[in-house]
Each structure stands twice: as C-alpha cells, then as structure tokens.
C-alpha cells in the first residue's frame, strides 16, 4: 500500500491520471488526484483530455462482413479497370470459399482452435467419422491443397501421396504449432495457388493433378478444393456454433457439375470393388447409353444425365431410365458423406437399381 | 518484422499496378474489415459502409500509384481513404437543409473522432491495448491489471496513461488517422 505522503508528489499524481480517468485506482488515490487537480493546471488539462478519451473507448463490434460483399467489391473494381491477369473462372469458387473460411477463422478466438470437430464421410459401405480439432481441419485442408501445389510445381515435390497420407503426415507434425501459424500456412499457400493459376491461365487448366487413386485436371481440382473448403468450414462453424452460409448458386452449380461428371467413374469403381451390381450392358465410348436424370433444385440448380453403364458413354435424355430430384444443398451433403445414401431426401422415379447406384456413388465421392 | 511489412506493401502495390486480380482479392482479405469497420463507425449503417468499401477498393485498384510509403503504411493510407470517403458521405447525408451547418459539422466531428479512435485502438502497441482492455472492459483497477499483465504497478499506470494519451489524439483532426505510422513504429 502506498503511504499518504507518497501520493502527494506531483510525478506520482501525474502517473495516476490514466488510471484515475478509467476509475481504476483506489478511493484514497482518487481523492488525492482530485485535490491535486484544483491547483495544478497542467494535470487538470491532461485529466480532462484523458477523461474525454475514455468516452471514445468502445467495445469492439464483431460485425461480420457480409460474405457476398467480397464479390461485389471486386466486381465493382474490375468493372472500372479490367484485370490484365484475371483469376480464371474455375479458380473463383476456391478463392471465394477460402476467403469465407478465413473470415470465420478470424472471428473465432484462439482457444476455439482446439475445439473438437467431427469429420464424417462415407467409405463406400458405411458412414465413418473421425475427431479432429479446428487446427487439425485447417492443416488437413492445407495438406490436401498441397496436391495442387505439387502439380503446379510450387513445392519441387513429385507428390505421390494420397490426401489421407498427406493428412496423417501433417497431423503427426502438427503438435505444438500455434493456431496463427497453421492459419497463415494454409492461407498463404491458397493465395499462391490462386496467383499461380492466374498467371498460368488457360495453359494450365488441363494439367493433371494426381490424387493417388485418381487424377483431375487442374480446373476440376480447384473445384474439388473449393468444395472441401466449404464442407470443412461448415464442420468448423458447427463445432464453434457459428452461422455459415452455403456458397453462391453459380459456384455451387460448378461443384455439383464436377460431382456429376465424376459419378460414372465412381459407379464403375464400385462395381469393380463388388459394391454395386454389374453393368447391364457395355456401351462403346462416346455413344449414348442408359442414363439417370439428375435434377438439382434450388441453389446450384441444373439437369445432368449420368451414363450408368460405362464412364465413357454419353448420357442423354432419350436414354433416361430413372429420375432423381434433389435440393442442391442436400446433394452436396450427400456427396460430402454427411448423410447416408438411403436417407437422402430424394424424389425418385424409374429404375430403382439405377437410383441406388447413383445415390451410393454420390456418397462414395466423399473422403476424409 | 517492419521491413517485412514494407516489403509486403511494395509488392502489393506492384502487383496491383500490374493488373493482377488475385492481388486485389488479397488486399480485400487483409483490409476489408478495417475499411468496413471504420465506415460503419462513421455512418452507422450497413449499406453506406458497404458502399464506402466498394469505393475504397475500386480507388486503390484504379490508382495503385497513389500509395507512397513515405506517408505511412498501406494500412494507414487505406484507413485514411476509408475515413475520407465515409466522412464525405456522412456530410452529404446530414446536409439535408433541415439542420444548421454547425449541427452537421458537430455530428461529422463526433463520428470522425469515434472512427479515428477505433483505428488508434487497433493500431496501438499490444501492451497498451491489453492494459486498457483490462481496466476499461473488465473493470480491473490498475493493481489488478498489473498483476494480470505481470508488470509493476508503475508500469501499469504508465500504460494506461500512455494508451489514453494516444487515444485522445482522435479528437485532434484528420492527421491522427495516418500518424506517420512508420514501418519502424514502437512495439
């Protein structure tokens, strides 16, 4: 405790002015400061100034930026001065989803980075899940984005590991790494991917990106990464109890289109693995074969004709044997493995086996 | 650290000048909440803040050459730009012919100081900000704050006073928004 005499010296009283203005000193000190102000003009002047400053303190508004503002702001600017090096259209959904997830991460506190997040997917037969943390999910995203970085020659690695192997490696190396470091590593790599894709432009669109069991052209790999970024952003948002909006309709449409184009290959792979009944007949590549009409309603809406008997066949309305109607978000949750195929709220008509094949194949698109 | 910041700013300027759309996206990701927050504090409405955000980023994209590192960081110059746009929008909105010029100016001055104060708080050295946070928002006295921060009582008093002194410059006018926040600023 300070003695009464110690509080009466000018330097001590002056040093108390900040605490006094904030009502953060003892009653004794407050009285001493106030007595001093009546006969020290310099301190009195500063006291008024600091009191006025306190009135400017404001709880920080956690005003979430409207996630659609980003595209409006960028479009407005690009309308006034067109880009010499635009971001390719196929990279735009990834750019938007990464920015949205980053905004969510900025809003959550560092303690929430250790919050448990359940990652769920469908392994071809059953629903499976695994527990991670927010930090673990971000390093998972960064690890799998690394596949694209390898393909673009950004890492100097040949990159033969599968998404699962890369994730395990990242998780093993992750302990003790602080949240801001994890976030910055993911974000910086993402920015570099977008930047490199912009400079490469059309030349790189068809570059093969090796996922291990399959490969995708770069343009589709960016859509795949956008989709996974959104799905895991939702996982995180749910874990920390934050609202999170789905992607824009046009971006969602592109993601659904990728899934629809992958389905014939997944159906064929399920047949090879004995998980689906055999094809009804072989169709020569490039010719029409039996097709399922996939009708997506709501966000991301569109119509797709999925060839059922051979990945090389062409799906056409004339060969439609079944019809499935699904809401865009429901389809995406199915494709993310978040709802089991037999529980998807799908309107179905026609060949039941075809409907089953497509719903199970859709869920089988999911992975860790 | 501060050299890194200067390098980042210059590189960003170069990329914007080069017409790289990806750079504009990164600029938005870094500064949108700063710009929108300042504009919102001045204008008090969402759509006005959205509009200011659009104007500010379009301006920087169209005129990347306006950024001059001798006048402070890119962050402080973008904050000034946001402040100017928001204040002129507020003045336009308030000047509806029903209020006296003095009333309009008083309102503009108050909104302006509030926005500058926000900027000062987010830009001040972290130890000062932490001390203010404990004393004001958590209502600790300076002894408890000293204890919480692991510093002497003298140091806690010093931080509270210095933090408020910085904050009080918000009343001084537009210069406070871009205090030559040099790249070697206090830590």
TrEMBL record, chain A:
<keyword id="KW-0804">Transcription</keyword>
<protein>
    <recommendedName>
        <fullName>Putative zinc-finger domain-containing protein</fullName>
    </recommendedName>
</protein>
<dbReference type="InterPro" id="IPR027383">
    <property type="entry name" value="Znf_put"/>
</dbReference>
<keyword id="KW-0805">Transcription regulation</keyword>
<dbReference type="Pfam" id="PF13490">
    <property type="entry name" value="zf-HC2"/>
</dbReference>
<dbReference type="InterPro" id="IPR034660">
    <property type="entry name" value="DinB/YfiT-like"/>
</dbReference>
<feature type="domain" description="Putative zinc-finger">
    <location>
        <begin position="15"/>
        <end position="44"/>
    </location>
</feature>
<dbReference type="InterPro" id="IPR041916">
    <property type="entry name" value="Anti_sigma_zinc_sf"/>
</dbReference>
From TrEMBL, chain B:
<keyword id="KW-0804">Transcription</keyword>
<feature type="domain" description="RNA polymerase sigma-70 region 2">
    <location>
        <begin position="27"/>
        <end position="91"/>
    </location>
</feature>
<dbReference type="Pfam" id="PF04542">
    <property type="entry name" value="Sigma70_r2"/>
</dbReference>
<dbReference type="InterPro" id="IPR036388">
    <property type="entry name" value="WH-like_DNA-bd_sf"/>
</dbReference>
<dbReference type="InterPro" id="IPR013325">
    <property type="entry name" value="RNA_pol_sigma_r2"/>
</dbReference>
<dbReference type="InterPro" id="IPR007627">
    <property type="entry name" value="RNA_pol_sigma70_r2"/>
</dbReference>
<keyword id="KW-0731">Sigma factor</keyword>
<dbReference type="InterPro" id="IPR013324">
    <property type="entry name" value="RNA_pol_sigma_r3/r4-like"/>
</dbReference>
<protein>
    <submittedName>
        <fullName>RNA polymerase sigma-70 factor (ECF subfamily)</fullName>
    </submittedName>
</protein>
<dbReference type="GO" id="GO:0006352">
    <property type="term" value="P:DNA-templated transcription initiation"/>
</dbReference>
<dbReference type="GO" id="GO:0016987">
    <property type="term" value="F:sigma factor activity"/>
</dbReference>
<dbReference type="InterPro" id="IPR039425">
    <property type="entry name" value="RNA_pol_sigma-70-like"/>
</dbReference>
<keyword id="KW-0805">Transcription regulation</keyword>
<dbReference type="InterPro" id="IPR014284">
    <property type="entry name" value="RNA_pol_sigma-70_dom"/>
</dbReference>
<comment type="similarity">
    <text>Belongs to the sigma-70 factor family. ECF subfamily.</text>
</comment>
